[in-house]
Amino acid sequence: MIVAASEKKTVIFLMGPTASGKTDLAISLRQHLPVELISVDSTLVYRGMDIGTAKPTPAELALAPHRLIDIRDPSEPYSVADFLTDAEREIAQIHAAGKIPLLVGGTMLYFRALLDGLAEMPAADASVRAQIERDAAEFGWPYVHQQLAEVDPQSAAEIHPNHSQRLSRALEVFRVSGKTMTELRQLQHAQTSQGSFAERYQICQLAITPRDRSVLHQRIADRFKKMIAKGFIDEVRHLYERGDLHKDLPAIRAVGYRQVWEFFDGVWDHAEMIERGIIATRQLAKRQFTWLRGWSSGANSELHWVFTDTEQGISHTKEEIVHCALNFIGTRAI
Q1: Domains in the chain: how many in total?
Q2: Average pLDDT of each block of 10 consecutive residues along the chain (334 residues)?
Q3: Is the pTM of this model over 0.90?
Q4: Closest CA to 208 of 106, 313, 140, 107
Q5: Within this chain, do residues 75 and 169 fall inside the same structural domain, yes or no?
Q6: Do residues 8 and 200 touch, judged by C-beta distance below 8 A?
Q7: Are 27 and 217 in contact (CB under 8 A)?
């Protein structure tokens, strides 16, 4: 049942590329608004993965607790369906307490799944998947990525050529059903009359980023080097030496972790590992921008950009950034 707009409870989304300042802004907003934070991040769910995920510090979490952090061991994959179940529960609890859920993170697939739901996908076909894996073994995963791009350019833009599991599944879906993942999601969106989540809640959506992409690239490089200085390599060494983890697990495929893991495997030397980690993080930011540029195609309300700098490249102060976000939230949600 569609809820009248005047009766809808508010949910705030705070999105953006990696290293854009989402966590700082979310913590600041909690000092001004009756919000409780829910992490929307596919890596922050894992325990023992703190430095490389830029997980909020204990001091930050004491100031602004984040739900859905440290809820899985790295050996246990965490799916989109898991997130939807957990997020809906946390949203309901926060509303029941008279507060507003503020969902903050950079896993755009999770945000999109909340808005549009999970599309009904065909069952796995072992023979089709085996052929895709044979092609990858012979020609490489970038070749498989190009095959996907020819039939489903939107999904290809959202999946990194080295993300073998998601890439294989997207191409498998098309070969089994004759429909792309993009088409199946659009079909579900049409069938759910603009999405059950959008029917039930008043959604206020913000995305934070610097206008100047080079600024973000520099932040990414600086942050990765700081992670190394803080003990990121030792953090991954602990995971590597456990013996029950491998590089095909979602946790270990995470940006940065994969590169340090391969450093221990002897694939990269120390300098190459750092370079590869920075490049992979930049590629992640690019994919996040791709999601956000196409955001208006889904079942969502207006997306408001919070820029951390002016058109002339002058950085805004923290107070100015918070003021911009509060102004938009005030006109849409509070």
Answers
A1: 2
A2: 68 97 97 97 98 97 97 92 92 98 96 83 84 91 92 86 87 88 75 67 95 96 98 98 91 96 98 98 94 68 89 93 95 62
A3: no
A4: 106
A5: no
A6: yes
A7: no
